[in-house]
Amino acid sequence: MLKKMQICLCFFFISGILYEISLLSSWSFSPMPMSKHFLTPEQVLNLGKSIIFLETTERLEPPPLVSCSVESAARIYEDRPIILFMKGLANDTALDLNSSYAAFSLLSSMKNVFIFPLQMEAVFQETPLFQWYNEVVPEQEKNWVHVSSDASRLALIWKYGGIYMDTDVISIRPIPEESFLAAQKSRFSSNGIFGFPAHHKFIWDCMENFVLKYNGYIWGNQGPFLMTRMLKTICNLTDFKGSEDHSCQNISFLNPQRFYPIPYPAWGRYYEVWDKSPNFNHSYALHLWNFMNRNRKTVVAGSNTLAEKLYKAYCPTTYKDLIQNAKLKDFTYSEDAA
Fold it and tell me: Is Kinase among the key words of this record (predicted)?
């Protein structure tokens, strides 16, 4: 009798392992794998080489630019998990493919896109940021949405590796580097997109400096200024002469053309009509500088702006469902009202 029970327990244990393995592998091959919704963040992150996005506000409806960023990454990196962490999403929040949030349903239907709650306390555990997080008072922080995002991206890349991208970055071709920072300009690094393998010393050092030099009142002190000052401690930064990349200590410092071919003072050019659109041949992705977009310029169907062309080319489902259909609904509503 005891032997039979042992055999049964062994069978159930092995079946459980095989089931989990099948879940982890199914999303790569199935056109629409429902099983992916049973996976935990750790299981997906442990697959490695994730593309990570963060939403540190409480909003649950991703706006079109966020949807475009995630969709474009999912299309460019078809063999990699694309993860959107959302602070406003709780473990018991019932949002799925039938959600009333159009962007949420759109992204959830993509085979390699995963949307998870952002649980900061768990993210910061076993990192230099854990004590800081438990001592800081978010309500007293001037830039908490940005600071908490700066911290979360460091911790996630340290623990699991992969690429972090801001939610206003449109991917247009794969990034060939594994350990890289993105130059916003000569001798200055952004933190809006970067990639490293798990447990890379540079990211650990950044987290330590984050805490040591913490000043939440200075915008960017824990973000691009942190990355820049840490890079300067190990590299002799020089000016870019053309479209070449720099590297030192096995870290690639990628040319501003890779992600910032349109610099932030000219961010509005994305929402203008060009006589001849740029080809962005030297770029891997495009940062649309949403932080600078105070007037909330948006992509409008039929406007023929550069941004509209980018949406059509790199996030066509977002364009169709959230831009074209929205315009059609507004037109229908105005006719009904008349």
Answer: no
